[in-house]
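Lab meeting prep.
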Amino acid sequence: MRTVWFCLLVIGVATGLSQAKFLSRREAKKSPQARIACVPSPTMGVRYFDADDLGQHDYRSGRDERNGIVYTCRGGHIDVTHLRKIADWTAYLAYQTREALVHGDDQFKFSMFEPSQHTVQISYPPGWKYLNRKTRRDIAGEVSISLSAYLAYTCSVWHEILTWHGFKAIGFYPEYNSAFSWEDNYSNALGSYLGAQALRARDEDYNQAMTRLIVEQFQRLGPQSKETARAAGLAVKGSWYVGAFVRVTMTKRHLDVGLDDGFVTPWLVPDVAPCGTPEPWFCPVPDLRLLEEYGFRIHHEIRPKEWERFQILRAVYPDRKDRKNRIVPTEHFGILMEHVKAEVDKRYGPYAHLPEDPSSAQRQIARQSGCPTAPAEVNRPEENEDAADLAGASSRASTVSFEPEQEQADEQRSRGLFEFLGSAVSWLTQSVI
């Protein structure tokens, strides 16, 4: 029966998938380029951009890209560098995965920027080896897009777990302070979401499709100016982070990676005047359902090689006798995220994993309405693609100042010098991803 069902699927897909645009063999020879990421707070080296003017996506060189922090009404702060990175890894892994599936390989391995080694074991549907090469390639193309998006996003969560435990990508500068900052998970999820869409675009190459999709998605989210992005960062000083212009400490950590409901919820800065009271756009995280529908099974395993692996493995395997040097995301990420949550709340307070103390939020609702308010209906992307268009609150809208006048004046005096030096020192102050 499974063989018959699989054959019906083959008939349905064999004529429709070959036009998907993957990377060329030459492009896929090298893994995606490194880009310099930013924290969303107005710290030395942080680059803010207008959310509707981000240049042309470029997998190979990035010379025409504008990468930094933007602000959108429905997605909050977004690190465009993270978005592009995960999209590019989706494209790179899609090519490698498709080749493995076409050739019937039982497994393939890869590493990202961290030393950890990822192994993906593949179980094929019945009758796979009897299909002709073109049909296998067509099916493998569709399956590989879903699998690569899942792997790229899963690897981004692993990166955040590593950096929370002290991993240093450039050897000496710790990235702990940027681990799970409030824009990371949403930016990564958005990258995998757009990367998969770009690969399925049939009339454009990958770079063209990514350029278009970023514009379209940010219009959906309500793009804002770089001035608003900076002001929104200043607005949460003292609540989401503390510190000065040179060095800050993140006192809030965004830990929603979609394990509970399959979506990442953005943190929206309250009272950003150009945005009004927007509904958040919940970004879907990739899953393996499409592979299962086609009869494939995969087992993804991480073998950590970083120094930080010891404390991570202790959290997963409390009993030393049972400890193994492997992480299985589907089994262990839930444990690790609970472990991180406990540490976050211990270091920064019981609600440090939430944008606001629930009790204070409830008091605010009571003050405004005089009675409890039911939560708004979840605004899922598949249900609300044409929801209220916030692009009218464009990046050219007048920007509201969120900070007291004295702090704004101090910030303005320092900004010119530090923006001049920022690009040079960002290698030292931000993470390389």
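Slide two material, second protein:
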Amino acid sequence: MAAALAAVATPVAFVWWRVRRFLATGYAWEDLVDLLQFELARHLEELAFTYGGGPTRMERVLRTVAYVALGGTAAWVALATYHLESVPDPTELLVAAATATVALLSAIVARLRTEHRTDPGAGRRLAFWRGRPGRWLFRLAAIRLTRRDGLVSRAAAESPRRVASAFTAAPTPSPNG
């Protein structure tokens, strides 16, 4: 039980510490989400240039092979299960195992090829930080946080959100003087 608790608490504590450091430099949750959105869009554009915008011919062929082999496996298993004789023919089981292997391997290769083109890890990272767990970690990390020396990093000071909020918070001069 203690090992399972440590396995969960250690990464959470590490991420909490990193978020505290991020907040201490003057950045906010919105800055991280904006940065991750920008980085994902830029990276997907690079991947689209390198691998193309949609699935390649090889990916479509592998996906078709996977579906056909999966259907063949299901058919052979159904034949072996509902066969009227009590002992199934060994070749039926061999064919079912072979088609299952082809389905599994072609599906794995097709998925790997798709991941090269789409980078699902970056999308999951953005979804995590944009969602409730990311907001929750930022709120938790901000508890009793003080900035070091009251300095804000130059990048944080030049952030569009920071500049916009600084101008909206500034008092406007009165027309009466």
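Talking points for slide two:
The helical segments are 2-24, 29-51, 57-82, 90-118, 120-130, 132-141, 154-157, 160-169.
The first helix runs from residue 2 to 24.
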